């Protein structure tokens, strides 16, 4: 009889994305400062492998090396696409420690949209927040930011629904408030609450 190649099931759907596994999981990681948003790197790099040993999960979206906070990872290709693709407009909330005193005018500009080199940002939610054990508890950063004498720092909460490159940092800089520390606290319905840097939580979907 002629040889017939065995039939194997494809791991990908017709759109080219990975099919959803039989058991989908979502991992919520509090990514530490100075950690790459990937599982491999150079010899001295801090990567996701230092904190997570779960196989076949991938970041849904990115978080810059010098940013902290919530990073979502999943083994579900459809969910990964929904979280990371701009067309779904999933809200992401950031806390930014900025250099200078935040004014009502700056808040209004950030809310209405800031003109950047690659276009004007869409309307956002912006408000001043107080970081303390009584209001918004926060872990210390390692290493801490460098303070400049006689120049105050402030904290602002920004919620955006788009993903321009280093958008929050560029938005605050555009209104004269350079970002010193940036933390993503939530993506959609998921929050970093209860997780210290390097800790993660696994959700079965």
Short description:
The chain has 205 residues and is α+β, with helices and mostly antiparallel strands.
Characteristic terms for this protein:
Alpha-Beta Plaits, globular, two-stranded antiparallel ribbon, 205 residues, alpha+beta
SSE blueprint and pairings:
Layout: E1 25-31, E2 58-59, E3 68-74, H1 77-84, E4 92-99, H2 104-112, E5 115-116, E6 119-120, E7 125-129, E8 153-160, H3 167-174, E9 179-187, E10 190-191, E11 200-204
Parallel strand pairs: 3-9
Antiparallel strand pairs: 1-3, 1-11, 2-3, 4-8, 4-9, 5-6, 7-8, 9-10
Secondary structure tally: strands: 11
The biggest beta sheet is recorded as: 9 strands, mixed
In quaternary terms, these chains amount to single chain
CATH class of the largest domain: Alpha Beta
Average pLDDT score: 88
Strand content: 25-35%
Number of domain units: 2
Walk me through the structure.
The chain is α+β, with helices and mostly antiparallel strands. The chain is 12% helix and 28% strand. The protein contains 3 helices and 11 strands. It has helices at residues 77-84, 104-112, 167-174, and strands at 25-31, 58-59, 68-74, 92-99, 115-116, 119-120, 125-129, 153-160, 179-187, 190-191, 200-204. A hairpin with a 2-residue loop joins strand 9 (179-187) and strand 10.
């Amino acid at each position: 009889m002629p040889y017939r190649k065995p039939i194997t099931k494809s791991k990908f759907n017709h759109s080219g994305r990975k099919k959803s596994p039989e058991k989908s999981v979502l991992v919520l990681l509090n990514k530490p400062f100075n950690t790459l948003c990937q599982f491999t790197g150079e010899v001295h790099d801090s990567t996701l492998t230092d904190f997570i040993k779960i196989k076949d999960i991938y970041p849904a979206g990115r978080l810059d090396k010098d940013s902290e906070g919530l990073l979502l990872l999943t083994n579900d290709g459809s969910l990964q696409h929904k979280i990371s693709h701009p067309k779904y407009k999933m809200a992401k909330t950031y806390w930014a420690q900025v250099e200078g005193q935040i004014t009502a005018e700056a808040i209004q500009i950030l809310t209405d949209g800031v003109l950047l080199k690659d276009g004007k940002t869409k309307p956002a939610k912006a408000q001043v927040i107080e970081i303390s054990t009584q209001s918004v508890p926060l872990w210390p950063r390692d290493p801490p930011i460098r303070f400049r004498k006689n120049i105050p720092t402030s904290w602002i909460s920004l919620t955006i629904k788009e993903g321009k490159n280093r958008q929050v940092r560029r938005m605050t800089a555009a209104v004269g408030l350079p970002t010193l520390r940036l933390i993503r606290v939530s993506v959609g319905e998921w929050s970093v609450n209860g997780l210290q840097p390097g800790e993660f939580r696994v959700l079965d979907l």
